[in-house]
Amino acid sequence: MTATDPTPTTGKAAVAVTARPANAATTAHAAAPTADTTADTIAATAARLRAARSAGTRRATVVVAVLVALALGLIVASVLLGGLRGIPGGDVLPAAFGMRTGLADYVIHRIRLPRALAALLAGALFGLSGALYQRLIRNPLATPDIVGISSGAGAGAVTVLLFAPALPYGVEGAAIGGSFLLVGAILLLSRRGGRVDTNRLVLIGIALSAVCAAYVNYLFSSAGQHNIAQVTRWLVGSVSGAEWSGVGVLAVALLGAGACVLPLNRALGALSLGDQLAHGLGSRVRATRTATLLVGAAAAALATGVTGPIGFVSLISGPIAVRLVGAERTLLVAPAVGAVIVLGADVLAQHGPLISPVPTGVLTALIGAPYFVRLLLRRQGARS
Fold first, then answer.
1. Within a 10 A sphere around the Cβ of 82, how many other Cβ atoms?
2. pLDDT attached to residue 249
3. How confident is the model at residue 224 (pLDDT cuts 50, 70, 90)?
């Protein structure tokens, strides 16, 4: 009995010894699927992100194509609607393609076509400037006309209109100068602890806008009746009387601002994560903020110098673009939205029943003011 006792013990030991490698192998096999699962998860997430980006790009392409088609239709309506007194109806369409001379050619190419193109380009500039400011400050209320940039441009333009109206490109230059001065003052006064406080920036911009309005009222009190009537009509905002020189200014401004959109869009994407994280990712936070403010101010100022301050276009173009394509592609779509808004408002201002003819800025204010109140109430409700 004692001779056979070690055998079971040895058998148990052998089983125990052989069990250990089996457990180690099981652990190794269990660890491998975990790594494979992590890699599969990362690959699946990357694939979903690529698919979402592709879907967003396709959606943005379709939206832009639809907006361009709408803009072309509105240009045709602006040029051809309303009839031409003293001109045969059969001469209107040939005159639009340069196949007629005389009165038809003059009305089409000197009055209506510059007006339509000025509305298109000014609306695009207003939409782009508003989207830039809203993306930078991350506040739908922070647009050049609300923050006061347009008021600074208007103050400079009114100064030239009253005292040096014959100065070549004086209105546009004074508008840019006034807007840049206001941007500098806002940046200087909104700094707190070495950083720009965005909430303080909006409030200071609103206060400086009131200062600019008081300055314009002072200029009115010292101007003649003829100049006051001209400037008052300009301050309402209208593309009536637009000339080819103004269209050229707007086209150059849109090309210059458009060249800055792609680099600014990338930089603002990093800045939306916060100043510290954007700085850690290698983004130049201060340069991005300053460049965005200046580009948006220049776009709004040049549009204001040609057409006057057509209000609320910059306020509503950005949020509409965000709803259509998302925040990442806002800067690419907001100019098209602004162009369609101003063109549509101008066509309605010329030919709308019961209301025409009125300045374009009157209709954009009728559309934009209720939307502004709605944004205020929504933000107040969100805070409460």
1. 14
2. 92
3. low
